[in-house]
Specification:
The chain is α/β, with parallel strands linked by helices.
Length: about 450
């Protein structure tokens, strides 16, 4: 150790030590301030745990709910995270603060996991919610006529029941960042913290279009393509589960990515997609599907990110028999599940699939036949709307097979539906409600045994 009597050196050392002390103290001071603010917030809320409730179909509202929950956790605010269908009248009446994050589906409807909440609780005009303080983050897309329809209806219902808004409803159009920032700011204010975690959405990565095959040349329907993509520049393949989605940012509209269901599992080494070329009324091609299927050359770079789609994953249903129902490009998500089932050696699978005609539109037919021969696909029913034997849709086949369906469901089967929302999904939903009952189907949806990836 070197000792010195030099007053300048001594002064400098003292100043350095003081500066170091302040730097060390700063985080502690900040944390102390946050804890004090959280204590004040808890005292204001009567110390009862808050609820963060989400209604999400494809995961946007769920991700924001998890980020909201993380902000509350950092602020030291006790809370529970739940889905809308976990809430009952007692929870609404017994909780003082609920943050609702609600997306809109169908035509102004609630997402599937909030169907029971919407049908049963929101139908009640007798419920008194005078104790409840709430906030609503409504997610939607202004291209739909009923923009944020469900979030708005929820807000109006809560207000009519006497609940008090903590701040005005925040509406998010197509995941727009400024609205999310506004929610985050209100939340930080409410929780008394400035230490909000990073809320950036996962970044897009560069992928290479490794393969593209036209699956239905000669079909009277719109062309549909099988695409295979791999991470560019030798990057590692990220993990995903069957049921998950990708978002593709097309060069013409990068700020409005399009969703596609993943048709493969990581063991395939590539992300497979099934993309239908969309045509606008004037005959021009859809922006993303036109680019992916017509303009992008094989080997082209595609900006893409994977998205967890928890509502459509197998999860606990992996141990159950599966009834997989879909049409058109909907075979993509169902193929992902069938691949996962084949890899796991799970044979109790029944696929019902509908397209136009068996000559041109029998997508992945050889693969399906091989699974059948190997005992991995217990049952396969195909419906052709322009087949040689007349016109039949997948929901017609389902109705005809009601006596087969009942024992599958009685044995615990889970039902997965993938493809068109209009026509197919609504038709299938009606048949299921007729065969079982709409109450039973909404129970099945709430318990995760009826899952849909419909668009
Ligand atoms: C969860 C989910 C999963 C999906 N999975 C698949 C799949 O596996 N395979 C598949 O082929 N498709 C899938 N889709 C559909 C896909 O995401 C695209 O919607 C489809 O490819 C059409 O996009 P596009 O860019 O080609 O057409 P667009 O150019 O977007 O045209 C489609 C329609 O959108 C409207 N539109 C376009 N731009 C705007 C705008 N800026 N503002 C308002 N309206 C606009 C127009 O009315 C047009 O008719 C899925 C969608 C969802 C939500
Ligand atoms: C099939 C379908 C129907 C939709 N219907 C509506 C609608 O009626 N009104 C609206 O504002 N947004 C609608 N949207 C947009 C979604 O609400 C929006 O994409 C939201 O971010 C989805 O959030 P989630 O991932 O939490 O489900 C719809 C989206 C899809 C795919």
């Amino acid at each position: 150790m070197i000792l010195t009597n030099d007053p300048i050196r001594l002064g400098l050392t003292a100043a350095l030590l003081a500066g170091y002390g302040i730097v060390c103290l700063l985080p502690w001071l900040r944390a102390r301030r946050a804890r004090a603010a959280a204590r004040a917030a808890r005292a204001a809320a009567g110390d009862s745990p808050w609820l963060v409730a989400y209604a999400s179909q494809t995961g946007n509202a769920e991700l924001l709910a998890r980020q909201t929950s993380e902000t509350l956790r950092l602020a030291g605010i006790a809370h529970h995270l739940c889905e809308f269908d976990d809430l009952d009248a007692a929870a609404l009446q017994g909780t003082e603060r609920i943050l609702f994050l609600a997306s809109t589906y169908g035509e102004g409807d609630a997402p599937d996991a909030a169907a029971r909440f919407a049908q049963r609780l929101m139908a009640r005009s007798d419920l008194q919610l005078g104790r409840l303080h709430y906030a609503v983050l409504a997610l939607g897309d202004s291209a739909y006529s009923s923009f944020c329809g469900f979030g708005r209806a929820l807000d109006a219902w809560l207000a009519a029941r006497g609940a008090q808004a903590l701040f005005p409803r925040v509406e998010v159009d197509r995941s727009a960042a400024p609205a999310i920032a506004a929610w985050r700011q209100q939340l930080s204010h409410l929780a008394g913290t400035s230490d909000a975690p990073d809320w950036d959405a996962p970044a897009f990565g560069e992928w290479r279009l490794a393969e593209r095959r036209h699956l239905n040349p000669g079909s009277s329907g719109a062309p549909i393509y099988h695409l295979e993509l791999e991470p560019a520049g030798g990057a590692a393949l990220p993990a995903w589960q069957s049921g998950d989605l990708v978002q593709v940012a097309a060069p013409a509209e990068p700020e409005r990515p399009r969703e596609y269901s993943i048709a493969s599992i990581p063991a395939d080494g590539r992300v497979h997609l099934l993309v239908r070329l969309h045509r606008h009324g004037d005959g021009s091609h859809g922006l993303a599907s036109g680019w992916l299927t017509q303009q992008a050359e094989q080997g082209a770079l595609v900006r893409l990110r994977l998205r967890e789609h928890r509502r459509f994953r197998l999860e606990a249903n992996g141990a159950r028999p599966l009834v997989l129902i879909g049409n058109g490009s909907g075979i993509a998500g169902l193929r992902g599940h069938l691949k996962a089932r084949a890899a796991a050696g799970q044979a109790r699978n029944w696929l019902l699939f509908g397209e136009r005609d068996p000559v041109h539109d029998a997508f992945y037919h050889e693969e399906l036949q091989a699974w059948q021969q190997d005992g991995l696909l217990a049952r396969l029913d195909l419906a052709w709307s322009r087949g040689p034997d007349g016109k039949e849709y997948v929901q017609d086949v389902l109705r005809r097979q009601a006596d087969t369906l009942r024992p599958w469901v009685a044995e615990g089967a889970a039902i997965y539906v993938c493809g068109s929302l209009e026509g197919m999904a609504a038709g299938v939903d009606q048949v299921l409600a007729d065969v079982f009952s709409s109450t039973f189907m909404s129970e099945l949806a709430s318990s995760g045994r009826y899952r849909r990836d419909v668009y």
